[in-house]
Amino acid sequence: MTGLPRVPDAPDGTGGAPFHADRQALRVFVLSGSQRTGSVNARLAAVVAGIVDTTGATAELAHLRDFAMPPYDGDAETADGPPDGAVALRDRIEAAQGVVIASPEYNASVPGVVKNAIDWVSRLRPQPFKDKQALLVSASPSMVGGNRGLWALRVPLEHLGARVYPDMFSLAKAHQAFAENGELTEAGLRERLTATVVSFLDLVEADTLYPCLQRRWYEFLGDETSAPVTQRAE
Questions:
Q1: Between 84-95 and 112-122, two packed helices, what is the crossing angle to 10 degrees?
Q2: How far apart are the first and last CA of the chain?
Q3: For labeling, which of 62, 91, 123, 224 is most exposed (least CB within 10 Å)?
C-alpha cells in the first residue's frame, strides 16, 4: 500500500487505513448477527464499518434485529410468501458490492437466528449471495473469540455461492477489548483488523471495478450449461 494517501492519524498516533478514491463507488453492507443490545459483535461491526468508511468506500451498518423473521416454515412461505424482513435483508445484500457479517458463536456453531435469516433469504429470487464477496468476523468473551462459529457460518454461505474471504477475524475476551470510544484498545488487534478489512476491500474493488476474466461457475453437476457467465477477478 505504499504511495497511497492515508486518512489522518487517530488520536493515539496510529495511522488510518489507505484511502482509495476509486472505492467511493463501493458499498459494503456490515451486519451484526446479534440481536442483543450492547452486543460485542454489534460493537465489532461498528468498528469494521468505521474502517470501511476511512478507505473511501461506504459502509452501511445494520443489525439482525432490524429484519424481523419467524422461524423458516415452508407452509408459511407457501401461504404468505417471505416475511418483509427477509425481503429487506435480501435487498440490502443485493445492493452492496461486499458484505461483512459479525456473528456470535453459540455452542461452537452459528447462531440459529443467523442461519434462519440465511435460510429465508436463500428462498428469494434473485438469490443475493451468489458471487457476493463476504468477510466474516466475530467477537466473544471466550479465548477463541467465536472462531468456531465462523467456520460453521462459511458452509451455508459458500453453498449459496458467496465468495467468503479466506481470512477471518475473531476477537477473544471481547468484553475487555473495547475502549469507551468504541475502538479496540490493543494496537496490535486494531492493526490486524484494519489489515484484514483493507485486504478484503482490495478484492471487492478489483472484483467490482476491474473484472478481467469471464468464467462459468457451477455448484451442481445438474446446473445448466446455459447459465449466465459471471465476471470474476483473480
A1: 80
A2: 19
A3: 224
Backbone dihedral angles phi then psi of residue 25, each to the nearest 5 degrees: -85, -5
> Whose CA is closest to 209, among 231, 230, 176, 228?
231
pLDDT surpassing 70 at residue 3:
no
Residue 217 DSSP class: -
Buried-exposed string 135-162: b where 16+ CB fall within 10 A, e elsewhere: bbbbbbebeebbbbbbebbbebbeebeb
Within 13 Å of residue 230, how many CA atoms lie on the same side as its CB?
16
Q: Around 7, how many Cα atoms within 13 Å sit in the side-chain half-sphere? A: 18
| pLDDT above 90: residue 90 | yes
Lowest mean pLDDT among 88-97, 167-176, 192-201: 167-176
User: Burial letters for 53-71: b for 16+ Cβ neighbours within 10 Å, e otherwise?
Assistant: bbbbbbbebbbbeebebee
Count of Cβ atoms closer than 10 Å to residue 87 Cβ:
16
Q: What is the pTM of this model?
A: 0.82
